[in-house]
């Protein structure tokens, strides 16, 4: 079984991989559904208590026309809180995998949920907490809440809501291991120890000589003079590629559209194209039909990574984000403002749906997903042990 075969069995491939068209369609549906729910909630609120609507919307309580977020505005606000997630995890000095997983949890959640329904600020902190548990970097909820200066209830209130949005799948396949493996292979080639793919009839010495004869990296005009310079070149490319995976790959839709191996190869192509071409030449023969198709995909991925939002928004971007934040405060679903209160009510009455607005088909689908997940777990570990009789 190849690495690609293994990846295709993952929940990331089965549930969280899309084409650009299906991704756009899913977001459009989410936005339209949330906007309808917000307008219905304001209408119901107006009918039951016009004064409550007046207090929330800042109007006169009559004839309210809710100006909901557009799809683009939703994306901008979610991306902003992805940036905030990166900043917070870096401040807490949590591992890179925690940071990357938390951002993907946030992005996955908002594929089927809108900021108008659940504010990203509340979901963000729960996403980080859940990512710490998923990536085996657990801290107590009390110590975590203290870092954010919030209560433990603020963290836990949306935990089950988030797991529902993630479709009860917590595994995130990152490209970091692939990059480290590729880097180790490149270093092995410099020491005459690397081995080419089965269809490549070249000795380790031949590969090392070809590596020394590579075209220079971008920004320079001279080739590596010796093995030491070659190693430095590999180390430089590795560091720059890793930085792209820790920023641009997380702030775009790359995880939804490309596999982990495509992601790390794309970053290598961006930082040192001759080195990336050399690496792939050790895996695929010159006449391979796969190679041109692969380079087309890698270039498309690289183009997406180049379009990543800046880590620090400029003046105009900050002004736009401030406008969207203000607009969001006026079009949030009034039934979803107090997640802690909703969570407490659900604990008192387990049959309460919390006003989550799930239609029957969605509820049935999620129930089937939970049952399928339990079945897969049973297939892997075997059925439950029978209790001892007598």
Protein model, in words:
By secondary structure, the chain is mostly helical. The protein contains 21 helices and no strands. Helix 3 (20-48) packs across helix 4 (50-57) and helix 5 crosses helix 7.
The H/E string reads HHHHHHHHHHHHHHHHHHHHH
Number of helices: 21
**Major β-sheet profile:** none
What percent of the residues sit in helical stretches (DSSP H or I)? 55-70%
Count of extended strands: 0
Q: From the helix content, strand content and strand pairing, which structural class follows?
A: mainly alpha
**Gap between N and C termini, in Å?**
46 Å
Mean pLDDT across the residues is: 86
Cα-based radius of gyration, to the nearest Å: 25 Å
Which spans have pLDDT < 50 for at least 5 consecutive residues? Answer: 59-63, 354-359
Please state roughly what percent of the residues sit in beta strands, choosing from under 5%, 5-15%, 15-25%, 25-35%, 35-45% or over 45%: under 5%
Principal-axis shape equals elongated
Write the layout of secondary structure elements.
Elements: H1 3-8, H2 11-16, H3 20-48, H4 50-57, H5 71-92, H6 96-112, H7 120-134, H8 141-148, H9 152-156, H10 159-165, H11 176-190, H12 204-212, H13 227-246, H14 248-251, H15 254-257, H16 260-271, H17 273-281, H18 290-306, H19 315-330, H20 339-348, H21 360-381
Helix pairs in contact: 3-4, 5-6, 5-7, 6-7, 11-13, 13-16, 16-17, 16-18
Main attributes?
single chain; 390 residues; mainly alpha; 21 helices; 0% strand
Task: Summarize this entry quickly.
By secondary structure, this protein is an all-alpha fold. It is built from 21 helices and no strands.
